[in-house]
User: Fold these one by one.
Assistant:
Number 1:
Amino acid sequence: RKEVEQDPGPFNVPEGATVAFNCTYSNSASQSFFWYRQDCRKEPKLLMSVYSSGNEDGRFTAQLNRASQYISLLIRDSKLSDSATYLCVVNRPVGGWGKLQFGAGTQVVVTP
Amino acid sequence: DVKVTQSSRYLVKRTGEKVFLECVQDMDHENMFWYRQDPGLGLRLIYFSYDVKMKEKGDIPEGYSVSREKKERFSLILESASTNQTSMYLCASSSRGGGQLYNEQFFGPGTRLTVL
């Protein structure tokens, strides 16, 4: 089983619609969670951190469910520019140093 | 703006060649990382460094080595390139916070390496 699993998609979303997708993680000791965004042929960039209470950044909402070990990302009022691959990132405590474990990504395609 | 640069965007090498990939960051970050990214597998950590001359193995260190002689520079070395090392290689850096590696990672543009 992969440590971080994501639905690869693609999620085809009409412009203006809402899309949501999840990411599951296997290590219950993980404490830090992030969503990164990667545009086609570009490097990943941090979209947002995910906090225990859930957090919002404009049209983006991230949630954490520790009991079921998943995080989610919801995008409201989708824009064409939201088309990208969204990478779920979870820390994996290993000894005294945490490593970041990246999921393979969920592709979102926003269509006019 | 944080800037992470990598020496080449595209590289073609032959099996058995020694390959050097260079990464430079200009934000005085303590931590630096090398990943490879393959379709369906996501980013996999090869090596990371939390200080000059310090290095730790990641998940897939076999066939690779690294060097960090200066804080701003982290080099990935393929001692004897093989075709299964054909991949996109991404370098990243982050500041150290609370002794952990959880701070935002800033990535370079990547080097697409093809080994023939």
Note: Residues 11 and 113 of chain B are 5 Å apart (CA to CA).
Number 2:
Amino acid sequence: KAGVTQTPRYLIKTRGQQVTLSCSPISGHRSVSWYQQTPGQGLQFLFEYFSETQRNKGNFPGRFSGRQFSNSRSEMNVSTLELGDSALYLCASSSIQDRRQFFGPGTRLTVL
Amino acid sequence: QKEVEQNSGPLSVPEGAIASLNCTYSDRGSQSFFWYRQYSGKSPELIMSIYSNGDKEDGRFTAQLNKASQYVSLLIRDSQPSDSATYLCAVTGGGNKLTFGTGTQLKVEL
């Protein structure tokens, strides 16, 4: 099976702009979770989607949002970008039968 | 108190030795436990999962779980230079929200 894919792999934006990141889960996986990784805060959970519904949410401001489509692909959006949003954004997918989560390669976002 | 704690290291071991990585967690309701390996500039790669007390072995890797002590460990036997990476401990409470430790940097020296 193909792994989790994320696009784009790299992004450079300026403060105040918005950005949309995409994630395609492993075939058959219906749960997609998003994480932010920074040197200072480590890996932090953003939110999880399952069957097009947000099932869980981390402690991030409302500028961070997401959605999931009927084919389980997911997008996350960050509006009004701040310098502190510079990070590696990772998505992970899992199946109903398995608690394990498998990560994609990530999107490296730089906010200038 | 952090929810998941790991020694940041670096932990240095000679090639061929056993590397022992430790992790403690604060939520007694935690149900699933994972070890991820992350090379510099790459995404985390799942190497072990464990859900019940005891040991679980997979090749050179052994995960150990002690829920009473809220302690998870990872042993890497016959350590190789290619094992040099950051090892992340992660736990969940039943859902899919992974809570990560800050990771332990492992260096395997020739």
Note: Chain A touches chain B at residues 31, 33, 35, 42-45, 48, 50, 55-56, 58, 88, 90, 92, 94, 99-106 (CB under 8 Å).
